[in-house]
């Protein structure tokens, strides 16, 4: 059965913390019904407050026909939340034992064609699906935080995930305006987090070695390569930097120096002293600014950037 034969109209959001609430707001804005569940005391009130906070942003993005916060339904029981869902987005704690139990219960309660996706940022989906009777429908759908703003979703299958599940998952995320990529084999941290981790590793190393302050390292990225990375990825940026010769010219002339830089990159240890230096450096950089102000400004600029990239016809 093709992906087109399985339109998703109802999504279950399992665990409604920061990521789950962000997903819920996005699904609602795309005109879907959302069944949510979370065992934490006060979870429903926190979820509805978070969705209300995100909703003005969703309105700026543009709501799908029929989109409404009234289509959010909260359930005390996990089984009730997934029973009628066409697609499940799980966002529980990053612990394999908890994931295994959650997916075993969801697999037992969900309809046969329901897809079960995890937002896990680093766990292998093969382990997550290990206790399911129908592991072929279990897949990783890792968003980039915050999901209600950032289009990227990494789709990864486990050892028992079917090709049909991958196809249907990619089709669903694409249909609701996401930019899914298929990670073709399981690796720790998937793709985007590994790339982030590589940058973080050198950033912490430079602080540890006294090369630069926390603020200067943030400035180096935010006012340097980060501006280009927000528009195009590393390979396309390299290609443009090579002029008429493109990336082949860059690799011919800078391949050796790049290798030399790789060999000189650090491997810091997250000592108590290093953590304290970074915490103090961030506090100094933040100064009197409030986190809420930074988040609001970030979200506005992200919205503008995403809109401009989408409408450019070239950088979408």
Distance between the termini: 30 Å
Strand order of the largest sheet: 3-2-1-4-5-6-7-8
Helix-strand sequence: EHEHEHEHEHEEHEHHHHHHH
Task: Output the radius of gyration.
Answer: 21 Å
Number of strands: 8
Short synopsis of the structure:
The chain is α/β, with parallel strands linked by helices and 316 residues long.
Explain what you see.
51% of the residues lie in helices and 12% in strands. The chain has 316 residues and is α/β, with parallel strands linked by helices. Helix 1 crosses helix 2 and helix 10 crosses helix 11. The two termini are 30 Å apart.
From the structure above, extract its key features.
13 helices; 316 residues; alpha/beta; 8-stranded mixed sheet; globular
Write the layout of secondary structure elements.
Elements: E1 10-14, H1 18-29, E2 33-37, H2 43-61, E3 72-75, H3 78-82, E4 87-90, H4 96-109, E5 115-118, H5 125-128, E6 138-143, E7 152-157, H6 163-175, E8 179-183, H7 192-208, H8 214-222, H9 225-229, H10 234-241, H11 246-264, H12 272-286, H13 291-312
Parallel strand pairs: 1-2, 1-4, 2-3, 4-5, 5-6, 7-8
Antiparallel strand pairs: 6-7
Helix pairs in contact: 1-2, 10-11
């Amino acid at each position: 059965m093709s992906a087109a034969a399985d339109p998703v109209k109802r999504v279950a959001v399992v665990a409604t913390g920061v990521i789950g609430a962000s997903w819920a707001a996005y699904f609602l804005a795309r005109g879907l019904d959302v069944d949510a569940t979370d065992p934490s005391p006060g979870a429903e009130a926190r979820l509805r407050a978070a969705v209300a906070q995100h909703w003005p942003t969703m309105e700026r993005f543009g709501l799908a026909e029929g989109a409404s916060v009234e289509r959010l339904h909260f359930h005390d029981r996990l089984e009730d939340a997934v029973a009628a869902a066409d697609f499940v987005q799980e966002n529980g704690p990053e612990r394999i034992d908890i994931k295994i139990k959650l997916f075993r219960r969801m697999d037992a309660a969900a309809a046969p064609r329901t897809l079960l996706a995890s937002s896990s940022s680093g766990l292998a989906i093969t382990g997550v699906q290990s206790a399911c009777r129908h592991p072929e429908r279990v897949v990783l759908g890792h968003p980039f935080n915050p999901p209600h703003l950032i289009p990227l979703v990494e789709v990864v299958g486990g050892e028992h995930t079917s090709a049909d599940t991958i196809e249907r998952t990619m089709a669903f995320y694409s249909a609701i305006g996401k930019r899914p990529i298929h990670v073709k084999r399981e690796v720790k941290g998937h793709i985007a987090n590994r790339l982030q981790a590589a940058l973080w590793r050198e950033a912490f190393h430079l602080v540890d070695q006294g090369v630069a302050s926390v603020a200067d390292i943030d400035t180096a990225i935010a006012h340097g390569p980060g501006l280009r990375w927000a528009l195009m990825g590393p390979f396309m940026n390299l290609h443009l930097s090579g002029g008429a010769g493109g990336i082949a010219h860059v690799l011919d002339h800078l391949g050796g120096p790049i290798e030399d830089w790789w060999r000189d990159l650090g491997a810091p240890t997250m000592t108590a002293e290093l953590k304290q230096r970074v915490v103090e450096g961030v506090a100094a950089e933040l100064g009197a600014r409030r986190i809420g102000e930074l988040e609001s400004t970030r979200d506005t600029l992200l919205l503008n950037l995403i809109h401009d990239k989408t409408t450019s016809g070239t950088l979408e």
